[in-house]
Amino acid sequence: MKKLIIVFAVFLSCAMNAQNQRFVYEYKFISDSTAKNEVKTERMYLDVSKKGSKFYSEVKYIADSIKEDRLKKGFRDLTGINFNFIPFVVEKSYPDYKNFFFISLSLDRFKVSEERPQTWKIMTEKEKIGEFNAQKATLDFAGRKWNAWFVPDIPIQDGPYKFHGLPGMIVKIEDQTNSHSFTLKEIKKLSEDWASESEKKSFSNIIPVNTAQYKKQFVENRNDPTKGLRQMFASGRKLMMVDESGKPLEQQTILRMREKEGKEQNAKNNNLLELDLLK
């Protein structure tokens, strides 16, 4: 906590000088509503620069860095890299706060423009969040009711995930079912702007869509886990998989395995952050 206090003080002294900052949030979530005791945790980065922000997983950042380093050295072996991370990236531009959500569905990568307004209701209630004197605000967004705490002393109208628009940085936000929460844990100074060319390459060849178009794609992929594989096979591309004896699997066997796996994943992933995707 002392580290947070010190870094916070440094941040306040230089915030208006447009120095690059990293806000580290702890994301806690329950992906299966039938197993509420199974709370998952992941550290998330909100990198802020003069022109905008980028929100993404710390584990993703580490995995991408290791992968890029190996590929630069000519190594194609990616074993040992942890690819089990929150997959999405959210970028916001300043000062208009245009909001873009980057995600992969099956074999496609999408850039989703977020048009839904965030109509906050600022409350009089105040609370101590860590070392911050924060004020409460509420919001209905993406099928959930959210309670947020923001700090006017941090003059940035931003926050984790897609959340923004309050008169100060959001240091904590949670939905009313306690299924999803983001809490600020640390603030760091960055030596470089987050929007480096190497990071931009990770989302090349993307398909731009709006929220309605993305929801359609999401539902189709969720209802048909084999959609991407069938499209790949239809285009003539091949996927090599073997059984326990080392014998290559036929396409139909691979499709059955993927369908079974997808349905099992969907059954456990029923408590999405954006709950209205399932409605």
From TrEMBL:
Task: Specify where the region named Disordered lies, as residue ranges.
Answer: 260-279
**Where is the sequence biased in composition, kind Low complexity?**
269-279
Fetch the InterPro entries from UniProt.
GLPGLI
Keyword line: Signal
Task: Respond yes or no to whether keyword GTP-binding is given for this record.
Answer: no
The signal peptide, as residue positions, is 1-18
NCBIfam families from the xrefs?
A: GLPGLI
Annotated protein name in UniProt: GLPGLI family protein
User: In the record, what lineage is assigned to the organism producing the protein?
Assistant: Bacteria, Pseudomonadati, Bacteroidota, Flavobacteriia, Flavobacteriales
